Amino acid sequence: MKRLQLLVTVFGILLSLNTFANSLVSIKGKVVDASTQAPLAGATLYISDLKTSTSTNTNGEFTFNNVPSKGKFLLEVRYLGYKTTSKLIDLATQQEITFALEPSVIESAEVVITGTPFSANNKTNSLAVVSVSRDKLAQSAATNLVDAIAKIPGVAQVTTGGAISKPTIRGLGYNRVLTMVDGAREEGQQWGDEHGVQVDQFAAARIEVLKGPASLLYGSDALGGVINIIDDLVPAEGTYNGNFTTNYNTNGGLTGSSLMMQGNTKGFVYRGRVSYKNAYGFGYKGHVVPNAGFNEINTSAMLGLNKTWGYTHLSLSRFATNIGLVEEGPDADGNYLDEEGNVISKSDAKSRSLNLPFQNINHYRAALNSNVLLGGGQLKSTFAFQRNIRKEFEETKEEPGLNLGLNSYTYDVKYSFANNGVWEPTIGLQGMYQTNRNSGEEFLVPDYNSNNIGAFAYLKRNFENGAINAGVRYDYKKIDGKDLFEDHGDHQDQVFSAFNNSFSNFTGSLGFAFDIAKNLNLKGNIGSGFRAPNIAELGANGKHEGTFRYEIGNSNLKQETSLQFDLGLTYQAENITLGLNAYSNKIYDYIYLSNLNDETIVNTDHDGNTETLPVYRFLQTDANLIGGEASVDFHLIKALHFENTFAYVKGTNKATNSPLPFIPAASLNNEIRFEPNLKGLNDSFIKVGLTNVFKQDRIDAFETETDGYTLFDAGIGTSFKTKKGKLNVWITGQNLTNKLYYNHLSRYKLANIYNPGRNVSFGISVPL
């Protein structure tokens, strides 16, 4: 509570900066067609580093009010049917700006990438980054946010039913992939197999996926990459608007709705959102998985100022969910049985009431994001507090078995020095303090305190046709595990023994991105990564409900370090785009789970029931991951898109020359999308697609092979213009042939539970 009061106090101090603000400044300009010079009405313009946006009127004119009187910022312009473009503008000149957009049948990816100290054009960014827009997220018919991005080449998900998905990037997941929300790293016991991302999927305006080591800018746990979830930019000054989105999925009966209202009154900005989801168990070919449903309610609010000195925004949110866990798969006849051995009917399995066991998770987040223009540069900061309360109910709905409370305090302060757009130097300081406490009757990880700090320096040199960048960073992390005894009345058993560990490391990166010929961009990066062992790897001792195993940690584990080489080539012409990426990632002291010599343990619960479980211990080895991604997008005619992507990764344990566990299978995605120009309608589309996943037979000793499969998808949608904006409607279908299949990274595969069958999703988004 004291930390939250500190956030509010800092927010009040930043509000007082308005007293010292310069006089208001307005920047005006025009957006026109490059060939005809005709004005383009409804084009959208963004300055990400100022969190401000506007749009053009019927004459193609735009105005940014209440912006700083000086400074250089990247301004992005988007308009459907034209190439997205960006330009570095100097606000001190205050001269009218004209953007001449060129028509294009190519759907350009998001131009501006915000996951670097300065927002940058992706062509000058050496990291492999993919951005997914809100429309694509909504039309994916996903059951959660990670599910919505799982078709990005190089991205996969470890799933536990429809509610829980953990991202993996190029074969690395769990604490090797960092999720950023409201500018702060999410901390929600992400070491667990069935611990998903605690984010409202409706709140994401877009998602940026950084592939490869991002430890330089993000620190420990970004060794494999970053999922950067970006909220809406605030509306233009003087506007007040909102949106209501709702969808329904036939598989699982998922209903999801979200209401958002926001406004901007003379630079005072505000937003509120409420979202709700509810589903019963997913199904496949005549069967519904009992107790696989979930419900979720999310609330969030943002208050802030956009002034001539910069901006400051205070975001508050609560993510609350209940998720059923499946303990037993079907019998030999494919039927699900209750505790008495009776067949659970399909209608009973569709009950939205959760039975034991189930999770109850509450995640509270407060984040203060600011960008203060200081000394000609930008001082960006994020101070955040998160409280994650994770309960698992196994024997009774009144008292949880596992009850973990995690408090995380994070800070991220960066100063980007004044520059003329050529040299872009930045220094930064980041850190986190955590406390974790057990309050239940069962224990998997010990109580602990953790403190880590990192400092970095980053330099980018821009040229006419590209850029080079370099950086260095130092991290230090200290973690103290506590003794814990289980009271049995007449005696006490020690569950955890205290330990005190510290880790430190230097990391660095060097990269480039250049247009080596017309329409041909080459980028490369050499980066080192760093990850300290998480609390489960160091101190686990117990069965985690739904994991089908008993885990034992090792407090003597070393930190992981990595060295990755990444090379990418992009060709973009009038009717075709091509993309190729290849990478090689060497990880030293890679931590992994293994069941040595078929070791087992007899586990006894509080009711005296016993079960024999396999024992998995955390080991270390050197590992190699090599792979690549490819994409090609054909536009034979303006309205017809033929998009294709391929991804492959191979992981090898160097000590045994055997495959690493939990490596996703190779995949090939094909989609034909027809976008007709219909009178009175906008953004109309008809699409059909194939998801081809290959057989995964490179497996660790405790894994089983997974056969390949092909899924057929389709969709149709359009939008209507209203006085308030565009009203979008869509219908999409997944696995329309109702294919029976296992995803290699599905945890329910262990219980012979198939992935979801046919699903049709209906959605509508209404402007308010």
UniProtKB/TrEMBL annotation:
The keyword Hydrolase does not apply. PROSITE patterns: TONB_DEPENDENT_REC_3. SUPFAM superfamilies: Carboxypeptidase regulatory domain-like, Porins. GO terms for cellular component: cell outer membrane. Gene3D superfamilies: Carboxypeptidase-like, regulatory domain, TonB-dependent receptor, beta-barrel domain, TonB-dependent receptor, plug domain. Keywords: Cell outer membrane, Membrane, Receptor, Signal, TonB box, Transmembrane, Transmembrane beta strand, Transport. Residues 1-21 form the signal peptide. It holds the Pfam family TonB_dep_Rec_b-barrel. This is Iron complex outermembrane recepter protein. Residues 126-226 form the TonB-dependent receptor plug domain. It comes from the Bacteria. The lineage of its organism: Bacteria, Pseudomonadati, Bacteroidota, Sphingobacteriia, Sphingobacteriales. It is found in: Cell outer membrane. GO terms for molecular function: siderophore uptake transmembrane transporter activity. InterPro entries: Beta-barrel_TonB (IPR000531), Beta-barrel_TonB_sf (IPR036942), CarboxyPept-like_regulatory (IPR008969), Plug_dom (IPR012910), Plug_dom_sf (IPR037066), TonB-dep_rcpt-like (IPR039426). Residues 258-735 form the TonB-dependent receptor-like beta-barrel domain. It is a multi-pass membrane protein. Its main location: membrane. Belongs to the TonB-dependent receptor family. GO terms for biological process: siderophore transmembrane transport. The keyword S-adenosyl-L-methionine does not apply.
